[in-house]
Specification:
Blueprint lengths: L3 H15 L3 E6 L6 H20 L14 E6 L6 E6 L6 H15 L5 E5 L3 H8 L10 H4 E3 L8
Antiparallel strand pairs: 1-3, 1-4, 2-3, 2-5
């Protein structure tokens, strides 16, 4: 049986392979479960891609869509997600503004926080911090954003 420690190590490698340049944190100030948060994260990134890529975003190659991995923390208490993503730096301000507007519609009580990644290893370790808990449910609390990329 694979342990949480082994899964953590694999997600650390995966996170590095994604070459993220931003930690995008979606807060809720709500006591929702991990499944509800996963659905909201999927809706958020779908709407963000639509805003950034236009109405035909579903027909765009996966490589042009927002890609990354999200780690859900504190389900049923104060659920939030730390997302390691690679964003177009040239559109940083536009992406930040769009993200704030989209998240406010999906979760009026929540906030969006962007943090540029200067030290990838530290950012990935931060996003993985909750996985050290033996009760962390990798299947429910880790979201590969490509799960929400319908193929044309």
């Amino acid at each position: 049986m694979i342990t949480n420690r082994q899964l953590r190590e694999q997600f650390n490698i995966f996170g590095q392979q994604l070459e993220p340049n931003t930690v995008l944190t979606l807060t809720t100030h709500q006591s929702w479960n991990a499944e509800k948060m996963k659905n909201l994260v999927g809706k958020f990134f779908g709407r963000l891609d639509r805003k950034l890529l236009g109405s035909a975003w579903l027909e765009r190659p996966v490589e042009e869509r927002t890609d990354g991995v999200a780690f859900v923390e504190k389900p049923n208490v104060n659920v939030h997600a730390h997302c390691l993503v690679k964003l177009d730096i040239d559109r940083w301000h536009h992406t930040l503004r769009a993200s704030m507007d989209i998240w406010k519609k999906l979760c009026p009580s929540g906030r969006v926080h962007f943090e540029p990644i200067c030290y990838p290893r530290e950012a990935i370790d931060y996003c993985l911090k909750e996985t050290e808990n033996d009760n962390y449910k990798f299947d429910d609390q880790i979201i590969i954003l490509r799960e929400f990329h319908p193929q044309p």
